[in-house]
Amino acid sequence: METTLHIITGLSGAGKSLASRCLEDLGYYCVDNLPPELMEQFVELAATGKPSRNRIALVCDVRGGDKFEDLFHALERLAKKGIHHSIIFLEAKEDILVRRFSETRRAHPLREATLSDCIRKEKQLLEEVRGNASAIVDTSTT
User: Domain spanning 4-138 has what CATH number?
Assistant: First the structure.
């Protein structure tokens, strides 16, 4: 059976964890914050394990630090093995993200001077991923 791989990524506070839980409810094997360097091995193990897991969703984002930059290399290696993917990019308006962070009292994974600085820096870091996304979802109103 063909493996379905979704990469969930996007801005911190945009709902990646919620999206992962929804996909898990639909029968996907989901892992949050998996470093891209482990992606190939994980997908192969999941697809060949007992029971095999052919519906996989991985949350990858800036929490991975320098390792996040390896995302496209990992996806290329998987594609060469016949495992295709889609990238689901979640975003929200800056004021919504600021409100969500203030409600949860969680720190942004980037340690910039202000929360707005963190959001702007994260947008810059994710430009290439956003540009290669199969779907871009604005969660501002959800």
Answer: 3.40.50.300
